[in-house]
Specification:
By secondary structure, this protein is α/β, with parallel strands linked by helices. The chain has a single domain, classed as Rossmann fold, CATH 3.40.50.150. Helix content is 45%, strand content 22%. It contains nine helices and nine strands. The strands form two sheets. A seven-stranded mixed β-sheet has the order 5-4-3-6-7-9-8, with helices on both faces. Strands 1-2 form a two-stranded antiparallel sheet. The longest helix has 23 residues.
Length: 249
């Protein structure tokens, strides 16, 4: 095992091995899978629905494109993408089996199953051929990857030349007063609500801390460039509560 593989990464606000983070994230998302969509509403005050629409609409998806929805959760991005393609060309991928099953159930109930393929896999070792996808999307999953640079390199491998990666993620807020109010809500309110609705304060506490310790917009931009993405850039939404990063292979 290389020195790089032994590097410590943040799991919440603790430094752990990459393997420990992978296992920890798996456990957290198995616990929250039943209330995942509600969790996103709580952590964004419902704004994630607007942000995700902007995220997908800004990609200018063509109807014949092959799309990867990575860290797909319950498939809300896949549903939006499925409306824009004509064939069974949306690949829904998450490392958590419970999440993938929720996405399958949702796709059946909401009428986009016939546009989707489903896979259980980590972002660091994708089960796809080289140069396969036209676009890849990650929505609120990037901060949970155990090895972000390895995942970016792997995503670049499976993208076609000229293919695009888009990442929507909680980020670093702008403005001292706004940041203090936002932190107070995150650290004091969200874990309490999580405890009330699912008797699981610990998981929601982790999710809040994972936002605080996640890399800044500029750090992610540098990471993308270091992994070979060109035309890399980002846009802040809602004072930097979230950001959309984009890069091209």
């Amino acid at each position: 095992m290389s020195v790089k593989d032994n590097e410590k990464v943040y799991f919440g606000d603790e430094k752990v091995s990459k393997e420990s983070k992978k296992d920890g994230v798996e456990d957290i998302f198995s616990k929250v899978s039943e209330n995942y969509d509600l969790m996103n509403d709580l952590m964004s005050l419902g704004m994630h629905r607007i942000w995700k629409k902007l995220f997908v609409d800004s990609a200018n998806i063509k109807e014949n494109e092959i799309i990867l929805d990575l860290a797909a959760g319950t498939g809300d991005i896949a549903k939006k993408v499925a409306d824009k393609v004509s064939g069974k060309t949306v690949y829904v991928c998450d490392q958590n089996n419970e999440m993938v099953e929720k996405a399958k159930e949702r796709s059946l109930n909401e009428g986009f199953f016939n546009k989707c393929n489903f896979d259980v896999s980590s972002a660091e070792k994708l089960p796809y051929e080289d140069n396969f996808f036209d676009q890849a999307f990650i929505s609120f999953g990037f901060r949970n990857f155990s090895d972000k640079k390895k995942a970016l390199t792997e995503i670049r491998r499976v993208l076609k030349a000229g293919g695009n990666l888009q990442i929507l993620e909680f980020s670093k807020t702008k403005g001292d007063v706004f940041s203090r109010v936002y932190d107070a809500y995150n650290f004091n309110i969200i874990p309490k609500i999580g405890e009330l609705i699912s008797n699981d304060r610990e998981s929601y506490d982790y999710l809040v801390k994972s936002i605080k310790t996640h890399e800044s917009q500029e750090q992610i931009l540098t990471m993308m460039k270091d992994c070979g993405f060109t035309n890399a850039d980002y846009n802040n939404l809602f004072k930097g509560v979230v950001a959309i990063h984009k890069g091209t292979k």
